[in-house]
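Archive maintenance. Older records in this collection stored only the sequence; we are now back-filling the structure field for every entry so that each record is complete. The fields below show one back-filled record exactly as it appears after the update. Entries are processed alphabetically, and DMT family transporter is next in the queue.

ARCHIVE ENTRY
Title: DMT family transporter
Organism field: Loigolactobacillus zhaoyuanensis
Length field: 357
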Amino acid sequence: MKRTYLYVLISTILFSSMEISLKMAGSAFNGIQLNFLRFLVGGLFLLPFAVSALKKQHIHLTGHDLLLFLLTGLSCVLVSMTLYQLAVEVDQASTVAVLFSSNPIFALIFSYLILRERLSRTNLIAVAVSLIGLLIIVNPAHLTNPLGLTLAITSAITFGLYSIISRWGSMRRKFNGLTMTSLTFLAGSAELAILMSLSHIPSIATGLASVPSLKTFAAIPFIQGIAWQNSLLLAYICIGVTAGGFGFYFLAMETSDVSTASLVFFIKPALAPIMAMFMLHEKIITPTIIGIVVIVCGSIIMFLGNRYAEQDASMQYKGIFAKLLRKPGTPTDLQQKIATERQQLKHEKIAEKDLSK
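Back-filled structure field:
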């Protein structure tokens, strides 16, 4: 169990530093380029573990699997993480970290809409509390950066959608977390590379460059900007944050359960703003602090609810499993109790007869 919490701690630190490291690298790289590099390298780093898992499970990839990974790559890398990267560039790292950490709430909503999974009372309360926290941070009456907030929230929504698509696909094909993540990263990187290549077509590049707000999408570089000065930071983003963060998260899940591993996303809303304050000298205003506290409360409610549900399901499973293991003709607990009571009554009657003699 100690090893599990070590995995959770490492994954939490890596994920909490994600927005900070991306913010620091933003001056050296194009945002879309950085998104492409980190998921390409991260996917390749996790690939040997994915291949090993596929061999152990005796799973052979099919054309339908390729379509699945293209879909998850589209929703995760191409859409959600691109919006996320743009949000980091135009807003504070602490704000983006908190808003993006609400993605499990949207995943719950999508699980109900797509998978028809039942929402428990605690889950509904957690959704309501977390949405209130988001509204406090966004503060619709006094919007200071509507673009950054919109990008961050849309990124969280689409990542929640990706989580449900990924879960649906892994349940059908029995892929483990590392396999699903690695192949999703690589498929998304390939899709992003196609769009980056299109941005180099002269007519498209000229058209995008002529619009100030779209200039960042014109002639997106692939490797330009990589130098010895920023190689360590880039390696940390690609291997540490992207591959390591997800890797340790799934190791925690495999050595414990989903609820324990999900502590990563419940701690991040509180830890990431503190790290951004010290490393980037970002100021955290009072409404943001209140919103963080409310979202963390919502996360705790969800965690406790999921924990209770898993324990309840585990107890039911053990009861059913014990019945299945019982050999035919073996008496049940109730039958054993009745037999014991009959034996006691029999001994009492014998004792009464002996006394009467």
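Update note: The two ends are 65 Å apart (CA to CA). The first helix runs from residue 2 to 16.
Entry marked complete.
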